[in-house]
Design brief:
By secondary structure, this protein is mostly helical. It contains nine helices and no strands.
Length: 196
């Protein structure tokens, strides 16, 4: 999987092939096919590894001392720090062309890990509400809030890792921009303690 991850980062999905991975590992293609039926499964396995890494780090975040907001921000950092190593593999699972080719067990494992991460982050938001640090608007549920935050982070990851010419658009530091937006967003909701 490490060979596939490196190819994904350097060359994207098009650069990955069972033959190339087998050649770099000095294995036969048949050996690779014993574990994966196609390159899409290999790419998804890279995404699964990313989610497993995030789960390990997220468990550490959940035991951090401090306010729920600090844990929530740390959860976002977990995604940001792990992402450059794995994002392309993860994002491809949302494409029909990939999802249709991989066995259900791979899809199920990826979605189960995503669901577990979502539940953990939702728990942080629930802790903030229970402690009085956060009051969500009446029309915004806890899961809705977590989903919108998740969508913002994953969207930013996709764009940041797409090779889009962000500096040509005036975005010189995407990570800084996301952090600033996150602080502003959480402050606007009144999630205490405020950053200002």
């Amino acid at each position: 999987l490490e060979v596939a991850r490196k190819i994904l980062i350097a060359e994207g999905f098009e650069g990955v092939s069972v033959g190339r991975i087998a050649d770099e590992l000095e294995y036969s293609r048949g050996t690779i096919y014993l574990h994966y039926t196609c390159k899409e499964e290999i790419v998804l396995a890279v995404g699964i590894r990313a989610q497993q890494t995030r789960m390990t780090l997220m468990d550490r975040v959940l035991t951090m001392p401090g306010h729920p907001r600090e844990r929530f921000v740390a959860a976002g950092e977990v995604v940001r720090v792990v992402s450059p190593r794995y994002t392309r593999g993860e994002m491809l699972i949302y494409l029909d062309v990939v999802r249709e080719k991989v066995r259900g067990e791979f899809r199920d494992q990826m979605f189960a890990l995503e669901g577990a991460l979502f539940t953990k982050v939702t728990g942080i938001v629930e802790d903030a509400i229970a402690s009085g640090d956060l009051v969500l608007p009446a029309d915004l549920g806890v899961q809705d809030f977590t989903y919108i935050h998740w969508a913002n982070i994953y969207g930013a990851m996709c764009i940041s890792n797409s090779g889009a010419p962000l500096s040509a658009l005036g975005v010189d530091d995407a990570a800084r921009a996301m952090k600033a937006f996150g602080r502003t967003y959480l402050d606007a909701l009144g999630w205490r303690p405020l950053s200002t």
